[in-house]
Amino acid sequence: MSKYKAYFAITCYSFTFLMLIYSALNLLGLFRPASAREVLLMFLITLCGSILIAVTDRLPIRNPMAAAFVRVADVSVCVFGIGFAAKMIPLNALYVLIIFAMIVAIYVIVSAFMMIKDKAEASAINEQLSRRYKQTGGNRDERYD
Fold first, then answer.
1. Taking the model in full, what pTM does it have?
2. Which of 2, 57, 83, 113 is exposed most, by the fewest CB atoms within 10 A?
3. What's the pLDDT score for residue 145?
4. Cα angle for residues 76, 3, 68 (degrees, 5° grid)
5. Looking only at Cα atoms, what is the longest distance across the chain?
C-alpha cells in the first residue's frame, strides 16, 4: 500500500473508532452529545494526528515500542492542542485521563487493523506469485529461458 493511502486509511479508521467510542461514552453519560462543529473538529484532529505521524515516521526510530510512543505522543499533541484551543476538552483530570485512554485504545485498534490489512495484501501478492510460479513451470523469470 502506498504511504499516502496508508495515512488516509489511518485517518479514516481513527475517525470511525473515535466516533464509536465517543458515542458509547455519550450513551453512558460521560460525554455530552457532539455538535456538527465538534464532529468536524474531531475529524481535523484525526487528520492532524495522521499528518504528524507521517512526519515523525521519517525519523530513524528502530525500536517498535519507541515508535509507538512517538505516534501516541503525536496524536496526543493534536488532540490536546486542538481540543484545549477549541474549548472541546475541559481542564479536568478525569476528562484528560479518559481522553488519553481513548487515544491509546484507538491507536491499538487502528494498528491492529493496519496489520490485518497489510497481512491480507501480502497474502494476495504471495498468491499471485505462486500462480505465476506454477504457470511458468517453476521458472522465476521466463525472460532468460
1. 0.82
2. 2
3. 47
4. 35
5. 71
